[in-house]
C-alpha cells in the first residue's frame, strides 16, 4: 500500500513529493542516506509527481540579466522523466529567491523595463521546459496576510497588472501546461487571504486570461489545522464558484514543535488525513504534493526554529503515523 497507487485508485491524478536538486539539499552530511532516499523518491507507487523545491526559481534560472541557466531545474525535471512522474514547475514570478540583479537598488525599474524583464524571463524559462510541465506556478504568493496584494517589487512598479502579464505570457509560451496561482494560507474558506485569491481568479477570468488552477501550498501546523469541511468549501469556492478547472495541494507539510510526542504526532496525522479526505471529495482536486518527504531535507527546521518533523519519513526512514492516516482515507 503506497501513496500514489492509492491516490490514483480513488481518482486523484497523483500523489507527489517535491525534491531539491542534490547540490541544494537542505542538510549536508546526508550523503549516506541518499540511496535510500532516492529509492523512495523514484518509486512510482509512492510518488507519481514531483516539483523542484528550488531549481526553477528566478535566482537559479536567470542569475544575470538575460543569462539563463537550467542546470538545477533540469536535475529534477530529469528525475521526473526517468521515473515517470508528472512535473509541477515552480515558480515563474515570486518576490523571494529573485536574482540579486532584479532587486538591486542600482536597477531603476520603470513599468516598461519591468514588463520586458518579466516577459523575457517567462518566455525563456517556460519556453525551455515547454511540453514537460504538467503545471506551472505562474505567480507565487502575491498576497499579504490581510488579503491585499503583497507590496513586492512587481506590485510596486506594475500593480496587479504584473499578474495579468505573467499569466498572459505563460499561456502563449506553454499552451499545454496548466497555469496556477499558488499561495499559502489559502486553505480556509473564510480567510482574508482566500478572498484575495478569489479576487485574483476573477480578475484574470474577467480579463479573458487563462488560469487553470489554484495551488494551496498547505504549510500547516499540527495543532491548528483546517477541518475536512473547511478544505472542501475552500476548494469548491475556487472551482465551482469561480470556475478554475482544478485545484491542488502543492507544498503540503505539517510542522510540529520539537521534540515531538505521541499527541502532536496524532494531531499531525489528522492534519494530513483531512487534506487527503478533502481532496478525494472534491472533483476538481487533482492531487497532493508534499514539500519533500524526508524530515532531514525539510525546509521547516531552518525556517521556523523550534519546529520540525513536518514530513512523512523520519530521519531513520521509519514513517510518521500520518502516513497511515493518509492511506486510511484513500
Ligand atoms: C522553500 C525551499 O523549500 C527552501 O529550500 C528555500 O530555501 C526557500 O524556499 N513557499 C514556496 C516555496 O512557494 O518555494 C518555498 O520553498 C516554501 C514556501
TrEMBL record:
Entry's InterPro entries? Answer: GH, GH10, GH10_dom
Which PROSITE patterns does this one have? GH10_2
- Gene Ontology process terms (BP): xylan catabolic process
- GH10 domain: from which residue to which, for each copy? 24-329
Where does the UniProt annotation locate this protein? Secreted
Q: What is its EC number?
A: 3.2.1.8
Q: Which domain of life is it from?
A: Eukaryota
Q: In which pathway is this protein known to take part? A: Glycan degradation; xylan degradation
Extract one GO cellular component term from the record. extracellular region
Locate the coiled-coil region(s) and give their ranges. none
A Pfam family found in this protein is: Glyco_hydro_10
Chief location bin = secreted
The catalysed reaction is: Endohydrolysis of (1->4)-beta-D-xylosidic linkages in xylans
Concerning its family, UniProt says: Belongs to the glycosyl hydrolase 10 (cellulase F) family.
Question: Per its record, how is this protein called by name?
Answer: Beta-xylanase
Q: Which species is listed as the source?
A: Diplogelasinospora grovesii
Amino acid at each position: 500500500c503506497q501513496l500514489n497507487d492509492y491516490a490514483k485508485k480513488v481518482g486523484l491524478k497523483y500523489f507527489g513529493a517535491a525534491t531539491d536538486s542534490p547540490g541544494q539539499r537542505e542538510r549536508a552530511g546526508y550523503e549516506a542516506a541518499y540511496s535510500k532516499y532516492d529509492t523512495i523518491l523514484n518509486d512510482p507507487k509512492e510518488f507519481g509527481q514531483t516539483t523542484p523545491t528550488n531549481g526553477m526559481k528566478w535566482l537559479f534560472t536567470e542569475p544575470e540579466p538575460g543569462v539563463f541557466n537550467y542546470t538545477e531545474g533540469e536535475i529534477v525535471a530529469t528525475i521526473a522523466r526517468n521515473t515517470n512522474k508528472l512535473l509541477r514547475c515552480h515558480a515563474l514570478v515570486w518576490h523571494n529567491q529573485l536574482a540579486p540583479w532584479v532587486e538591486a537598488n542600482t536597477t531603476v525599474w520603470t513599468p516598461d523595463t519591468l514588463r520586458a524583464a518579466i516577459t523575457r524571463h517567462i518566455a525563456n524559462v517556460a519556453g525551455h521546459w515547454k511540453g514537460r510541465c504538467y503545471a506551472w506556478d505562474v505567480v507565487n504568493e502575491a498576497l499579504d496576510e490581510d488579503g491585499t496584494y503583497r507590496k513586492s517589487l512587481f506590485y510596486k512598479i506594475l500593480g496587479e497588472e504584473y499578474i495579468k502579464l505573467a499569466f498572459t505570457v505563460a499561456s502563449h509560451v506553454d499552451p499545454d501546461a496548466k497555469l496556477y496561482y499558488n499561495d499559502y494560507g489559502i486553505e480556509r474558506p473564510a480567510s482574508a487571504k482566500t478572498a484575495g485569491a478569489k479576487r485574483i481568479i476573477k480578475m484574470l477570468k474577467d480579463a479573458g486570461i487563462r488560469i487553470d488552477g489554484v495551488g494551496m501550498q498547505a504549510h500547516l501546523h499540527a495543532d491548528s489545522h483546517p477541518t475536512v469541511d473547511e478544505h472542501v468549501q475552500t476548494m469548491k469556492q475556487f472551482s465551482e464558484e469561480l470556475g478554475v478547472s482544478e485545484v491542488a495541494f502543492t507544498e503540503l507539510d505539517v510542522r510540529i514543535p520539537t521534540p515531538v510526542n505521541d499527541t502532536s504526532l496524532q494531531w499531525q496525522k489528522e492534519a494530513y488525513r483531512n487534506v487527503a479526505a478533502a481532496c478525494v471529495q472534491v472533483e476538481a482536486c487533482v492531487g497532493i504534493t508534499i514539500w519533500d518527504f524526508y524530515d532531514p531535507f525539510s525546509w521547516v527546521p531552518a525556517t521556523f526554529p523550534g519546529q520540525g518533523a513536518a514530513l512523512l519519513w523520519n530521519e531513520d526512514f521509519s514513517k510518521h503515523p500520518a502516513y497511515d492516516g493518509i492511506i486510511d482515507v484513500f
